[in-house]
Design brief:
eight-stranded antiparallel β-barrel; four-stranded antiparallel beta sheet; Neuraminidase; 6 helices; mainly beta; 10% helix; 3 domains
Length: 590
């Protein structure tokens, strides 16, 4: 306690000097902040090793050593898994004086026949609602979807990935800095609300993994290929560097070393990957059929707004660690309701009096509240560069590669005959973050600019680095025509809109042109390409310029945009060979 009091005295003195000179908190300057940070770093307790800690009476943070769902507490100690029924949840049986026990009596994870799934130590476990993933010391996934129910009916499996959770298995990404499992359960969460405020059903269970440099957020789920090829863009077009991440119900929380935090709701279905759903980047799109949670299935044919980036969370005015957690309120907790807004954010820290515990707020709240945990020993690494007085989210950003291409847009008639070409450029193309800029030449040194929005899409092949492995990666998205272009009276611009996008002055509301992908309709053999095909030296875009709008299937396009190295047509087997295509050939071979 004396160390904590000494820290407080020095911090108070620094603040007193700053205020004496008419400085507010936000005006302390780097010297004052550095003084506080230096003093804190000298007095903050070292983090403990979870393996050395006794099994807890209560779990406050979801980590890979201690975690919980609505029925059970789980813990990993020295390679074994422990379980205890909760007494504090309305969904559990509220067993009084429940005791920790080794799962199955021996701490080993077993399949439906009672067979041990690994003879290696378990080094991590994370659960969310009825789903969980454990990782052994060889990085292998061991997966369960039966964690809500009787203990003796919990079963695990080694299978993971396409097809339909029956893939050959999965390993934790090499060099992972932080990882977690998140179940966006239809039973518990029922719906999520997109950025246009509309509700849709949710049922995806992703594992998120932060790369060793803290800059890339990879994810997979039981129905995607068994690889880490899918990514979410971190803030600032992938440049933000995170210390750790946490998630629950597909809501991801990240934090940098300065204490800046962001959240985003995103997974395979929400982010645009499911070919059975319709997506849009239009913030005015409103074609949902209901706002009734119990009838949300009717919105399956409506357009879902692709997430519009990350939401900045308020900073914490206090000492904090990199241990962060996201969780649901108790299902019957007053004030909770179905929907993506119902999440609780927690950050491990210390208050002004030296008490250890956590800062907490709900997603919908604007400020954090500190809760003391009696006898707590911190497990996270202290963010000694935490600066609660200013936004440091753009400080110390990483590097990303963005691509610029020269190219052209070609038009064909229904017989495949070439009927027109216009010069074009593609600028600021980022394989993970969007938008990019499409420039179309309208005259001597005159160009109009359109936005290319894009997102990940369905794959069935295992690819750790799609697009950079010598093959195109399939993306989907929309081309946005800005209002000033749409409303232009320039004859050349109007001709381009009409000839290449089938937009006349009477159709000036069709500002977002679909670029949908559908692998069964793609065939390298027959030269059929949908969506966006991308690799570092070549981008091919097939926009759906037809005014016909089919719910599931892309309309064959008479326009092709080619940027960079020219696509050589059917039976092309060069460096740009399509790997995500020819699904028809795959089915025929089986």
């Amino acid at each position: 306690m004396q160390r904590y009091l000494s820290c407080l005295v020095v911090c108070a003195f620094v603040c007193f000097i700053a205020l004496s000179f008419g400085c507010s908190k936000s005006d302390l300057g780097s010297a004052g902040v550095d003084a506080i940070q230096e003093t804190q770093s000298d007095t903050l307790p070292e983090p403990v090793n979870p393996d050395d800690q006794p099994l807890p009476d209560e779990i406050y943070f979801k980590t890979t050593h201690d975690t919980f769902n609505e029925m059970y507490y789980f813990a990993v100690r020295n390679g074994l898994v422990y379980i205890r029924e909760r007494s504090d949840s309305n969904m559990s049986r509220q067993v009084k004086n429940a005791k920790w026990e080794l799962i199955y009596g021996d701490g080993k994870l077993k399949d439906s026949k009672g067979k041990n799934l690994t003879n290696k130590k378990i080094v991590g476990l994370t659960v969310d609602y009825g789903d969980g993933v454990a990782v052994d010391e060889d990085s292998n996934f061991i997966h369960s979807i039966t964690l809500i129910g009787e203990k003796d009916k919990i079963v695990w499996q080694r299978n993971w990935g396409w097809p339909f959770d029956q893939g050959a298995g999965m390993k934790l990404m090499e060099g992972t800095r932080s990882w977690t499992y998140a179940s966006d359960s239809l039973e518990r969460n029922k719906v999520y609300r997109d950025d246009n405020g509309h509700i849709f059903q949710c049922m995806v269970s992703p594992v998120y993994a932060l790369s060793d440099d803290g800059q890339r957020i990879h994810f997979c789920d039981p129905w995607t290929p068994s690889d880490w090829g899918y990514q979410l863009p971190s803030p600032y077009r992938g440049k933000f560097i995170s210390e750790s991440l946490a998630a629950a119900g597909s809501l991801v929380l990240i934090i940098n070393k300065y204490g800046d935090m962001f959240t985003m709701l995103n997974d395979f279905d929400i982010g645009g990957g499911n070919p059975g759903f319709r997506y849009t980047y239009d913030d005015d799109k409103s074609d949902v059929l209901t706002d009734n949670v119990d009838m949300a299935i009717l919105n399956v044919v409506s357009h879902r707004r692709i997430p519009d980036g990350w939401t900045k969370q308020p900073k914490i005015d206090g000492a904090i660690t990199d241990l962060i957690s996201v969780q649901f309120p108790d299902p019957w907790d007053k004030g909770s309701a179905p929907g993506s807004e119902e999440r609780i954010l927690r950050v491990e820290g210390m208050d002004d009096e030296g008490n250890l515990g956590y800062y907490e707020k709900r997603m919908t709240e604007d400020s954090w509240k500190f809760h003391i945990i009696p006898g707590w020993k911190n497990q996270g690494k202290w963010l000694t560069e935490n600066n609660p007085f200013e936004d440091c989210s753009e400080k110390n950003l990483g590097e990303v590669t963005e691509y610029n291409f020269n190219g052209k847009i070609e038009r064909h008639n229904i017989f495949g005959m070439h009927t027109g070409t216009v010069e074009a450029k593609l600028e600021d193309f980022n394989f993970i973050a969007e938008p990019a800029i499409i420039k179309i030449k309208t005259g001597s040194n005159q160009w109009i600019e359109l936005k290319l929005h894009h997102h990940f899409f369905l794959r069935t092949q295992i690819r750790e680095n799609p697009g950079f492995d010598g093959h195109y990666v399939t993306l989907a998205g929309q081309i946005e025509i800005p209002a000033e272009v749409m409303n232009s009276n320039d004859d050349v611009v109007r001709d381009i809109l009409k000839d290449f996008f089938q937009i006349s002055k009477k159709q000036n509301k069709r500002r977002f042109i679909d670029v949908r992908a559908w692998p069964p309709f793609n065939s390298e053999k027959y030269g059929i390409v949908t969506g966006i095909q991308a690799q570092p030296d070549s981008i091919i875009i097939r926009p759906e310029i037809s005014t016909v709008d089919l719910p599931l299937f892309p309309v064959p396009s008479l326009v092709v945009m080619t940027f960079g190295k020219e696509y050589k047509g059917p039976n092309y087997s060069g460096d740009g060979a399509f790997k995500d295509l020819d699904l028809l050939e795959l089915f025929k071979s089986r």
